[in-house]
Amino acid sequence: MPLSKRQKRRLLEISKMIESSVVVKDDMEEIQLEYAAEIDGLVDSIKFKDVIPPSSSKNSTDMAQYEDTGQADSTNQEKSTNKTQEEAKIETPEIQQGPPPPEWAKKLWKAIAKKCHPDRLSFQELTAIQIARRQVWFLEAKSLFEKRSWPRLLHIGVQVGEYVEEISHRDQLGWLSKEYNRVSKGIDSIQTSLAWQWGTNWENTELRVNILTTVLKHKSVQVPSKEQLIELLMKFELD
Hints:
Layout: H1 5-47, H2 103-116, H3 118-121, H4 128-147, H5 150-159, H6 169-191, H7 194-200, H8 205-218, H9 226-238
Helix pairs in contact: 1-5, 1-6, 1-7, 2-4, 2-5, 4-5, 5-6, 8-9
């Protein structure tokens, strides 16, 4: 049964929530790494007995060894070949193992590719931001198809205005709701990490001393006295 306009609107609404949450999560992960680098810099300053600790460090901390930082896997970027629109061929990605993908997934993939393939974007009235976003979606959709990640593929389809009629509205809404919850949990994971607590509680000296002490012990570095750590943090904030 074809989806009604209202049903499509509901799917689009939750899909937009997913997309905005992904953007927030990616930004938070970048900030989280900066906070982790700050901790690394302070730990190194204590380990090597520097007088003034560096305010930042490009080395990523190994805090992930004992807590979930919520870091997502990055999507591999591929360069498109210089084909004309007529020469560009959209082929269904091959799945080596397991049963063949459902027909609706093949159909959806081709519909997404037609709107997101790099060789076809220049023929559409899109802004530079929209073009960049669709380039990412094209690569992501290809990977998702190969991995059989149907809920995420469905989400990309909705974003470009391609809907699946073969699956009930209730099931599709359920899939997208689970995807939204998954991304939301990633955000929650970042907010509860030591690195995030460190960076967002800069005025809480007691908490930062405790976090620094925990990391120093984890890295088997001799922990200075509380007074020395407080002095170190004061110098750090003035840098």
